[in-house]
Amino acid sequence: MRMHVVQHVPFEGPAAIAEWAHERGHEVTSSLSMTEEYPSVSAVDFLVVMGGPMDADDDVVSPWLPAERRFVAECIAAGRLVLGVCLGAQIIAQVLGGTVRRCQNREIGWYAVERTPTGAESPLFWAWDDSVVVGQWHGDTFDLPLSMLPAWKSEACENEAFVFDGRVVGIQFHLEWTADALNALMNACEDDLNGGGLYEMTRVQIEDEAPHRLAACRDLLFALLDSMASIGPGLAGEGAL
């Protein structure tokens, strides 16, 4: 299977997602969104859209966003497997007709997300417990279109994950962090780590929990990706918007 990863900044790469792909024998390519250079949709079986510190709805500051949304929309319409992480989930939500807005409370650190009835109906999360602790680092959230309901929620955010067409997944949280990836993010976004909010941890708190949280998140990630891969990419038109 051919996986293509769209990155927004160098310090938020696929990390454990790439490790999963290599362990399963899949090909991985990548591009940086601000270059507006993407492969042909026919060359992609599995699209992964990563996170980043920019706002998903600010096309003035990030003028490359429209091109990215078009590419994501083309992949969805062609029935490809698609996974969005944090900013990536927000961009996918926009493509599907949702909106992005500020979250009432930022989430930074290790916090629980809860399965919703919609999430319970999806076979993609069959290996997850009804409540799991995940990595969080976001100040924005998304509102889904009226035809969609969240698959996971948290105390701070009602929309933590969604599934569209059985093969498109958006997760507001992070499962892909490795020790190196988390350290790179904390170094790049150190100003976010004051621990001043209700759902905001300090760097020390995040690091203290990291050893066992990273391993648990890796297991969740691999189970999700295995479930998605078992479905496989669809035929053109199956995921039409």
| Poorly predicted tracts of residues | 236-240
**Which CATH class is shown?**
Alpha Beta
CATH topology: Rossmann fold
The value of Rg in angstroms is 16 Å
Could you explain the architecture of this structure?
It is a single chain. The protein is built from 6 helices and 9 strands; from the N terminus they run E-H-E-E-H-E-H-E-H-E-E-E-E-H-H. It has 241 residues and is of the alpha/beta class. It has one domain: Class I glutamine amidotransferase (GATase) domain (Rossmann fold, 3-Layer(aba) Sandwich). The strands form 2 sheets. A 6-stranded mixed β-sheet has the order 2-1-3-4-9-8, with helices on both faces. Strands 6-5-7 form a 3-stranded antiparallel β-sheet.
Give a concise summary.
The protein has a single domain (2-231), classed as Class I glutamine amidotransferase (GATase) domain (Rossmann fold, 3-Layer(aba) Sandwich).
Topology record:
Layout: E1 2-7, H1 16-23, E2 27-32, E3 46-49, H2 65-77, E4 81-85, H3 87-95, E5 99-115, H4 117-121, E6 131-143, E7 152-153, E8 161-164, E9 168-171, H5 179-188, H6 203-231
Parallel strand pairs: 1-2, 1-3, 3-4, 4-9
Antiparallel strand pairs: 5-6, 5-7, 8-9
Helix pairs in contact: 2-3
Key attributes of the depicted protein:
single chain; 241 residues; alpha/beta; Rossmann fold; six-stranded mixed beta sheet; three-stranded antiparallel beta sheet
